[in-house]
Every structure is written in C-alpha cells, then in structure tokens.
Design a protein that fits this description.
The complex is a heterodimer of chains A (360) and B (417). Chain A has 360 residues and is mainly α. Chain A contains 14 helices and no strands. Chain A is globular. With 417 residues, chain B is an alpha/beta fold. Chain B contains 16 helices and 18 strands. Helix content of chain B is 34%, strand content 25%. The chains are: A mainly alpha (360), B alpha/beta (417). Chains A and B meet through helix 1, helix 9 and helix 10 of A and helix 2, strand 6 and helix 3 of B.
Chain lengths: 360, 417
C-alpha cells in the first residue's frame, strides 16, 4: 500500500513539477481563481452590486470619467466596506500562508504553523491589554499592531534565549518553550476576559479572528509588510531548502544557518503578529495552505512561497465571504470558519500519515 | 592543503579535542579511526568551522579559516555527515543541486555551468534513473550515494566524510572507497572517518588513530595499524597480517580484552597456567586465559597453537618440527609444571612426538585439568601406550577431568563473554 502511494505521488509530482506545467498551473489556475474570488466576493453581500457597477466605481475613483450607473450608497459600500475587507482577507491569507511555510521549514516539521510558538497568544494578550486599558487609540491605527508585535517579540525573545546554545539554535527547544509561552499568555488573556465584563464581548470576537471593520489603512500597512517580507523570504527560500539536510550539512554547503534562522524567525514573527493585531488569530491557514501546496507542487520553498500566497488569499476570501453571508444579517468571525475547516483537515493529515506508515 | 595547529575544543567543561596538530596534503587518502567518542566527528566539524574551536588555528591553503565566509569555506571544503535524514520530500536532482548553493548568489539563479556540473555529477554517479525520484524513497546505499554526489557537486578540493560506508553492504563500501581513491588521484584531499579497520588498511594512504580527543598515532597505514596501537586504543588483541591478495594489512580482532588487564598484569601476582596443546586444538583455551600468566608447550614451531600463543605473547617451550624433545626443553617444561597453579591438558591426539608431555604429567603433583572431548583411545597413535598413561593419570587425586569448555572455565573462574 505504501509503495503504491509513493509511486502515485511520484508520478503526480513528475507531471506537475516540470517547469512548464508549473507556470501553466500558476497562470491559468491560481491567478484567475484569485481574481475571480476577489470580484465575486466584492459583488456579494447584504446588497448585491454587479460587476459593471464595481468596475465603474473603480475607474471613477482612479480618475476616469465614467457614466454614473450606481448610487452613492453603493459606492460607499464598495469603497469603504467591501473592497478593503476583501483585499485585507487577500493579504492576511497570503501573509499567514507564507508564515506557515517558514514555520514548517524552520522547524522541519510539516504540521506546525507560526501560532504554535506563541506568536498569536502573546499578540492577542497585548491587544486585549491595550483594549482594556483604553490605550488602543494612543498611536491611532498603529497602536494595536505595534503593541502586538512588541508582545510577540517579547515571547520570541524569551523562547529564543531559552533555545539558544553555544553552538546553535535548537528548534525542538524552541517548539517546546513556544508551546509553554503560548499557554502562559493565553491564561493571561483569559484572566482579562474573566474580569472585564464591558470589553469581554469585543475582545472575544476579536480573538476569534474577523475582518470586521477592515479599512484601507490596515490593508496598506499589511500589504507593504507582506510585500517586503515576501521579497526577503524569496531570497532566503534556498536556505530553507538546504536546512532540510540538517543544520551542519546546510552550513557545509555554504548557508549561514544561524543567521538565516534569525532573520526568518523575526520576519515570521513580524508578519503573523501584525495579522493578529488587525484581525485576531485566524487559525489553521498557516498550517493547511502550505501543506496542501506541498502535496500539489512539492517541497521547494521558493515555489511554496509563491503558490501559498495565492492559496492563502483564495481560501481567506472565500472563508470571509461565507462568514459574512451565511447567517445574514449576523456575521460569523472568520476564525471560527477556518478552524472548522482546519480541525478535520488536521485529522485527515493524521489518518493519511497513519496509512502511509509514518506513525508506527 | 589543510592543516590545524594546537586545536582544542571543550564541550561544557569536558575536553573533546585535546591539542591536535595535523597536516593534510594533496594526493593522499586519509583515514581517521578510533573508538566511539574519541572525537573523530568533532575534529571534522571543527576543521570545516561548523563547531567553533576554543583554541588553535586551522589553515586552508595557508589561509586562516576564520578569514573565510561560510560560503567561501563551502567552495573549498565539502562534508558528508553521518546522518542524512530529510523530513520533506525532495527529488534527488534537487538535493544534488543544493551542492551548488555556495557558488550561486542569493539573488540569482544557477548558471549554465552549475547545471552542467550537476548533470555531470548525476551521470558520473549513475543516478540518471533516480534523479526524479524522491530521496526518502531510496535505499540506504542509494541515499548515501546521493549525499556524496551532492558533496562532489560542491567541487571542493577537500572532501571530508564521516563514516560514509557504515551500515552499507560490501558492494557499496568498495564502490565508495574506489571512488574516493579516484578523487585523490585527481588531486582532491579526501579525509574519511572509518570504523572498519580493514577497509582503512586497504584504501587509506595515511591513518590518524585517535583516542580520548588525542592523536595516538599519525602516519603511513603500515606504521599506524600495529598490534600495539590497536591494543592501546581499542583494548583488544588483534592479529595483523599481510593479505596476500591485496597486499594490504588485514586485522583480525581476538576476544575482547578487559581494559584493565594490562594494569592487573603489572600489579598483581598472576596465577600461572600451563597448557599442553597442539594442532590448533588449544586455541579456544588459549584465547580465553589472557588474564593469567600462561606458558605453553612443548610444542612444534609449525603448529597453529604455536602461532597463536606467540601472538598472545605467552611463554612458549618449543621444538623444531619432527625432532625429538631435547633435554633443555624437558627441564624447562618440568620447571613450568612445578610452578603452575593449573595445568591444562587439551583434547589433543598423542603420537610418539608429544608423548613425553603426557609422561611428565604423571610425576607432577600440581592441579591438573584434563579437557576431554573425545575418548582417549580414538586419539591414541602410539599403539595403546598413551591410553595407558592417560588412564593412570586420570585416576590420580590431583587430576580433574572436564568434558566441556564451559566446565573448564568454571574451574578457572573465567567469564566467557
């Protein structure tokens, strides 16, 4: 059975991994799918606004002179509500997915995501603290991301120093201490929730993760961050490939392993903590998307980064669309939806691994 | 060329590498041997800069290693590690391509030359059929081949391998060692950590013998692989001979020697055992009584037991073959027998040549143990004379007869492990 599966996989990968078919997959599947998802999600909502109108609104806002076939209300919905929200979902999905690629590569473990080492729980705690103390407006829109990044950094610094030895950075210690820190911060957050009645509902919804209240500023900050992080990570993807051989072999083929680890760890923290600050912790995207892409296109980290970007975006656009339409006029936190998907997916992974004999 | 001077490395407070100075030159295949935990792997990792030394200097082509960046080191030195587990599925060609990472800038793709090198290596290693396969689905030998191919793709002038042939079958062992030999002939310095002393003896030009983080001996294979060196580092006795087929040394380890044995031999007064044997029939006894002061004889110098006793450095009373026992030997034997704590008579056949051995035993009052596997009349070639003496001997009070080697060792209190 195992051999059969491997043969199957090998043939599949042989077919997909030739460069031409990869480009094909990229251009004819992922790019159109993402564009379609964005347009579709922008059309759908409490009021349906057709594509023609959206196109017109967009052209007019860039400065073209177009015949006005829409109402001011519709324009407001598109420009201030739906578009930033959909685009935020796009960029958050992409950010979480590439953070997941990095986490899995760094820990050499296909079933981890950045949240596992306490990034989300420390960022959540920072954000909750800010809200409770009434400080969330201190530095306008930048307050929450800065605070949550600082708290994530605090967590990462503690974990980093715990797992640093004279010779290298021990990824297994990092994972263990990360889990410990994660529980620790979660406890603090629960503490806050328990004692502050007036804010608890807001914090709870925030923690579940949603794109509620998305705006252009949030989108721009995240987009810039994503763009920079993504570019740097592309240049480091090779190092991540080499690290599968083990630290010492990676170094022997010319990779500055410790340096790369540090850079990627910081980027991963920065990227995922900022998404937590804006949208709460949206679980499982960082786990599911990289893993799906591994099955589809193999384990080369450069390709994984590119394809996961699209995969993550598409997933979150649809998840958000469902979250805000399924029980109208109410809105589900999108985090609930991704976790609903993620749980069974995780179990599917376990069953698959069990069948292929990896858990003996 | 690569050399190190006064290299020291501590793990916490434990000294792992203790003041090692070495020089490796082109055109030589170097073997590093030594017991587990003697610092072989650490030495390799220090020389490539993966572990940071505490004291000393390493020079590659006369330039201090510290002056090189990690990428520059990778262009000069390639390392094959002991373990090569890969968590994710990567194709063979992808793994080999990783060998070129040091030569490709972070911001560019591999050049045509890099691709050519990778393809050449794949062809050279006969991996063309496997190049699209997933590394983790290959057999152990194939995986190791890919890992070595990756190191070769680095095009480094110095190649270091940490036990590349362990847990591989004999075909792969020979294939890899021949391969290394070819690279040495092309001017590459190859340094291999090996556990198989015979492989080392057969292929290496020079051997570094390590123990407890120190160099026990370094030099030509012939001069390093000596009985004394092996005894000193591994604590085992070995027979070292020249293999007539390969003209290299071959080493046959004998039973494990208790490490403390040398000391005991010097300090305590050892019990004395005299063994009467011959025809190779005493070997089982001789090998297991190294903790005693042993004498053997009278025995012919062409006898297998003679060779063995000589290797084990026992006292031997010998005669030339086909000659009768001289008076001198007889006196010597009597002297040994009178002083022995135990006298062992092995399960040997008797002819007129060795009959005097048996006759003398009759007049000795010491502890005599007869090891009888086969009845005496079946190994008597003296026409009944030996049987007569033997039976008389067995009836004496100071004589015990045992029928198995286990029983014998029980009396001698030897743990046969």
């Amino acid at each position: 059975m195992k051999n059969f599966n491997q043969m199957d996989m090998r043939n599949l990968m042989k077919n997909i991994e030739s460069k031409k078919s990869l480009y094909f997959l990229f251009i004819f599947l992922f790019v159109p799918l993402l564009l379609f998802s964005i347009i579709f999600a922008t059309c759908i909502g409490s009021v349906y606004i057709n594509f023609e109108k959206i196109w017109g609104i967009l052209l007019e806002n860039i400065g073209f002179n177009v015949e006005k076939i829409w109402s001011d209300g519709e324009e407001n919905i598109i420009i201030y509500l739906r578009l930033p929200r959909v685009l935020l979902a796009v960029v958050v999905g992409a950010t979480l997915a590439i953070s997941g690629v990095i986490a899995q590569g760094l820990f050499r473990n296909p079933i981890v995501d950045p949240y596992i080492i306490g990034i989300s729980s420390s960022a959540s705690f920072g954000t909750a603290l800010c809200i409770v103390l009434g400080l969330s407006g201190l530095l306008s829109i930048f307050t929450l991301p800065i605070v949550s990044f600082l708290f994530s950094c605090l967590a990462i610094i503690i974990i980093y120093n715990l797992s640093k030895t004279r010779y290298h950075l021990s990824m297994s210690v990092l994972l263990l201490s990360g889990i410990a820190i994660s529980f620790f911060f979660s406890a603090f957050t629960s503490f806050i929730l328990y004692f502050t009645e007036e804010h608890s509902h807001f914090i709870l919804i925030y923690l579940m993760g949603s794109f509620w209240g998305a705006n252009w500023a949030e989108f721009s900050i995240l987009f810039l961050l994503f763009l920079n992080g993504f570019t740097i990570l592309l240049f480091y993807s090779r190092d991540l490939n080499a690290m599968v051989l083990g630290d010492s072999t990676a170094q022997s083929i010319g990779v500055n392993v410790e340096n790369s680890k540090r850079i990627m760890l910081v980027l991963m923290t920065l990227l995922s903590s900022t998404t937590v600050a804006f949208c709460g912790s949206i679980g499982f995207v960082g786990l599911m998307i990289p893993h799906l892409m591994r099955i589809l296109i193999g384990n080369d980290n450069k390709r994984l980064l590119i394809f996961s970007t699209f995969g993550g975006s598409i997933l979150l656009v649809w998840a958000d669309l469902i979250a805000r339409t399924i029980v109208t006029p109410l809105e589900l936190p999108v985090g609930i939806l991704t976790s609903l998907l993620g749980g069974p997916f995780f179990i599917y992974l376990i069953i698959k691994k069990k069948k292929s004999g990896e858990f003996l | 060329m690569i050399s190190c001077k006064h290299l020291k490395f501590y793990y916490k407070t434990k000294l792992i590498i203790d003041d090692i100075s070495l020089k490796f030159e082109r055109g030589c295949l170097y073997g590093i041997i030594g017991p587990n935990g003697s610092g072989k792997t650490t030495l390799l990792k220090l020389m490539i800069g993966i572990l940071k030394k505490n004291f000393g200097d390493i020079y590659v082509d006369e330039i201090n290693l510290q002056k090189f960046s990690i990428r520059d080191v990778a262009k000069r030195l390639a390392l094959v590690n002991q373990t090569n587990y890969i968590e994710f599925d990567f194709k063979v060609s992808e793994i080999i391509k990783m060998g070129r990472y040091a030569s490709i800038s972070r911001f560019s793709n591999e050049t045509r030359e890099d691709k050519k090198i990778v393809n050449d290596v794949i062809e050279q290693f006969k991996l063309t059929n496997l190049k699209n396969r997933i590394f983790n689905t290959l057999s152990g030998g194939e995986q190791q081949k890919v890992i070595i191919a990756r190191a070769i793709a680095q095009k480094a002038r110095i190649l270091m391998l940490d036990e590349p042939t362990s847990h591989l079958d004999i075909n792969y062992q020979l294939e890899f060692m021949n391969l290394f030999r070819n690279y040495v002939n092309k001017g590459v310095i190859v340094i291999v950590v090996l556990h198989d002393l015979n492989i080392a003896a057969q292929y290496c030009d020079k051997i570094i013998l390590m123990n407890h983080g120190k160099i026990v001996d370094f030099g030509e294979t012939l001069n390093v692989l000596t009985k004394q060196n092996i005894q000193k580092t591994y604590g085992i006795d070995a027979v070292i001979k020249k293999n007539i087929f390969t003209n290299s040394l071959y080493i046959t380890p004998l039973k494990i020697n208790k490490l403390v044995y040398k000391n005991i031999k010097n300090q305590k007064k050892l019990k004395k055992i005299h063994v009467i044997c011959g025809g190779g029939l005493g070997s089982e006894i001789l090998i297991n009584i190294k903790d005693y002061e042993v004498s053997v004889g009278i025995i012919s110098i062409l006898d297998d037991d003679y060779t063995l006793a000589k290797e084990l450095e026992y006292t031997i009373i010998s005669e030339s073959p086909f000659s009768s026992i001289s008076k001198k030997s007889r006196l010597e034997l009597e002297n040994k027998l009178f002083n022995a704590d135990h006298i062992i008579l092995a399960n040997i056949p008797f002819g007129n040549g060795n009959l005097p051995n048996l006759k003398i035993l009759g007049s000795i009052d010491r502890n005599i143990i007869i090891f009888e596997k086969d009845p005496i009349d079946k190994r008597d070639y003296t026409g009944g004379l030996a049987t007569k003496i033997y039976k008389k001997l067995k009836g004496k009070d100071n004589v015990r007869t045992v029928f198995s080697i286990k029983e014998l060792f029980k009396i001698l209190q030897i743990n046969q492990d």
